[in-house]
Amino acid sequence: MRDQSDLEIFARVVRTGSLTQAGSELGLSVAVVSKRLKRLEERLAVRLLHRTTRRVAPTDVGAAFFERIAPIVDAIAEAESLVSQTATRARGTLRVTAPSSFGRLHIVPHLRAFFALHPGIVLNLELSDDFESIVERGYDLAIRVGALESSGLTAVRLAPVQRVLCARPSYLDAAGRPQSLEDLRGHVCLATENQNPWRLVGPEGPCTVGASGPLRTHSNEVVREAVIGGLGIALRSTWDVHAELRDGLLEVVLPAYAAAASAGIFAVYPSRAFVPAKTRAFIAFLKQAYRSSGAWAEG
């Protein structure tokens, strides 16, 4: 393994917020990471990091320093990959972030096959429903579900997404089955805070419906378990509840309405002239896996 520069070590510590994790990704011990950071601070005659027992965070000066050196560190890594064996061989640590539910259901089950194909890759997979900055956190790749907004990132569509209104049959037996969007006003509608109102497409075209009910949450996992538990009606992706719909645990409500077709499952990564082989390998693997994954990808 090549000798990492002090700047690279500092950038990785800031991005991970941990000496231990940074050392693990770089193949260095915590003691070496700490020593190299101390050497960098002594050379610059400034304190770059606040260290606690739980987390490491940059000082004001350290944050400003990181903003300036991070692009340089990334450019050096890209240049080295371009002229080394990693240009053709997938190897090294791949940092990926993905939504919690999707990662649990549709990434983790495929990892055994992925590692068998690419034994030289170490995958650092972070599952979170927070849309963190890929560049600032140093992720190589992010999996995004939904409709993407404009950004300076590159996006590859991995699979389509179909979202349907659904509920547990026992809930509908008790509360009644809606016959129109207006009927939803008399029902418990379950949605995360950032997915309210529901944006649907029906016979009359695009429309929005405010989801109202006693539950407030930012967690998709909470909404999923709530609708399966019979609390109300939810707008869910078929990749998330396909098995429950197939087995009759959930029932589609108002089948003429669904979420906009522009939504999809995307692999998003920083726009660069050269994309590392490890990133290309993971994207290609997921595209193939989802192509043969079955009915959830088609709705």
Automatic annotation (TrEMBL):
Gene Ontology molecular functions: DNA binding
One Pfam family in the UniProt entry? HTH_1
| InterPro entries reported for this sequence | LysR-type_TF_proteobact-type (IPR058163), LysR_HTH_N (IPR000847), LysR_subst-bd (IPR005119), WH-like_DNA-bd_sf (IPR036388), WH_DNA-bd_sf (IPR036390)
Where in this chain does the record put each HTH lysR-type domain?
A: 1-59
Q: Which UniProt keywords apply?
A: DNA-binding, Transcription, Transcription regulation
Q: Does the keyword Nucleotide-binding apply?
A: no
Which family, according to the similarity comment? Belongs to the LysR transcriptional regulatory family.
Return the PANTHER family for the record: HTH-TYPE TRANSCRIPTIONAL ACTIVATOR TTDR-RELATED, HTH-TYPE TRANSCRIPTIONAL REGULATOR
Q: Please identify the protein, giving its name as recorded.
A: DNA-binding transcriptional LysR family regulator
